[in-house]
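Need a sequence for this fold. Nothing fancy.
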């Protein structure tokens, strides 16, 4: 009888020990799964954060579409500045403008105004909104502004030059539309031809 009791007791202890080990293993497995899920969540958050600031910033683009037109316009202008380097990214455009300010604030001012008014003209002319949002209506403007400032005989801070920059930049979307209608027959791109024509006319008119 005593032997039977001892066997039962040992069996119960063995079962308890087994249950404890099983519980520990399950807890460890749960902790590992939780850690794995947390790591995946961190990777997803980091990946999403990178997508917000890299490439064409598509996630940011979706967000900015729901914001006030003023913020959208700033985004378009910055993307137009970046398109000079074939980049559709407002942060890149901001870096380019900051670099221009460091190099020559007068050039930066003219380039910024050129991009802004070229984009504004495209908006007023009801150009394709997706093209405007990608900055493809502003990059000719920044080139016009920069080159007019560089080739101006009056030197830096000749304020009347801003009027020429604004007008010539606003002509770029008009020239671009006209050239697209003609060159489109042969599937040829416009690229920076509006900028070349605008600056060429300015240089010819000023005797360069």
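Here you go.
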């Amino acid at each position: 009888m005593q032997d039977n009791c001892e066997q039962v007791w040992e069996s119960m202890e063995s079962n308890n020990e087994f249950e404890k080990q099983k519980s520990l293993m399950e807890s460890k497995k749960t902790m590992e799964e939780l850690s794995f899920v947390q790591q995946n969540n961190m990777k997803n958050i980091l990946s999403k954060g990178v997508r917000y600031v890299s490439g064409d910033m598509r996630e940011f683009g979706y967000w900015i579409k729901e914001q006030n037109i003023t913020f959208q316009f700033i985004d378009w202008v910055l993307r137009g500045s970046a398109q000079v380097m074939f980049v559709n990214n407002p942060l890149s455009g901001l870096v380019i403008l900051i670099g221009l300010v460091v190099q020559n604030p007068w050039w930066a001012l003219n380039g910024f105004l050129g991009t802004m008014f070229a984009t504004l003209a495209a908006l007023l002319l009801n150009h394709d909104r997706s093209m405007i949002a990608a900055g493809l209506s502003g990059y000719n403007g920044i080139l016009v502004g920069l080159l007019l400032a560089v080739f101006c005989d009056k030197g830096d801070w000749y304020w009347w030059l801003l009027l020429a920059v604004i007008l010539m930049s606003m002509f770029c979307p008009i020239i671009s539309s006209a050239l697209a209608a003609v060159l489109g027959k042969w599937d040829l791109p416009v690229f920076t031809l509006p900028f070349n024509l605008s600056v060429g006319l300015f240089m010819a008119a000023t005797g360069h």
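For context: The longest helix spans residues 2-53.
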